[in-house]
């Protein structure tokens, strides 16, 4: 399991688990709301194009961009989320959690998140399960918001959660032993 990890893992760092998220298309309340708006947007654009085409000429073609945006909003969020997960890989070591992805425009990325005794773990039971251990700040049009980061939609999430808790316990024990040696 350590092929390709040379130069990435620290000396003595051991891989405990590797996995991939479920790549199925999922429907959430937020996705449904965006899809309904997109459907209305595309529907209005289609109506506008039909009405404009009756006047003759090519003026109706200006509605194509709005129609395309509406279609993108209708199915985009669900499809993009599934595509992103299909191109993501997870690794847990005895020190860190890694999230690797390979996406168009963004390219290949590898993010590393240290697992310490202070790391807040959150397990959302599925199936499939999701395990969150960090947050990222995302910019929005009204400021910023915090987005959970973790191993999304994985099989055996409870086992991975247990492994992370064990890593935290080892850090806690090591800190106690270091404190006793300092005395």
From TrEMBL:
Q: Where are the transmembrane segments?
A: 29-51, 57-80
Classify the source by domain of life: Bacteria
- List UniProt keywords, sorted A-Z: Membrane, Transmembrane, Transmembrane helix
What name does this protein carry?
Aspartate carbamoyltransferase catalytic subunit
Q: Which organism is it from?
A: Shimia gijangensis
């Amino acid at each position: 399991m350590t092929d390709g990890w040379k130069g990435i893992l620290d000396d003595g760092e051991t891989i405990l688990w590797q996995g991939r998220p479920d790549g199925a298309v999922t429907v959430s309340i937020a996705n449904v709301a965006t899809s309904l708006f997109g459907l209305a947007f595309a529907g209005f654009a289609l109506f506008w194009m039909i009405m404009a085409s009756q006047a003759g000429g090519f003026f109706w073609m200006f509605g194509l961009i709005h129609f395309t945006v509406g279609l993108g909003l209708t199915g985009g969020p669900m499809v993009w989320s599934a595509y992103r997960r299909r191109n993501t890989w997870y690794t847990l070591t005895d020190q860190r959690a890694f999230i690797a992805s390979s996406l168009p425009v963004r390219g290949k990325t590898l993010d590393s998140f240290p697992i310490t005794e202070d790391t807040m773990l959150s397990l959302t039971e599925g199936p499939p399960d999701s395990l969150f251990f960090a947050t990222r700040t995302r910019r929005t049009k009204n400021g910023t918001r915090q987005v959970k980061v973790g191993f999304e939609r994985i099989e055996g999430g409870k086992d991975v959660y247990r492994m992370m808790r064990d890593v935290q316990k080892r850090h806690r024990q090591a800190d106690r032993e270091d404190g006793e040696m300092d005395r």
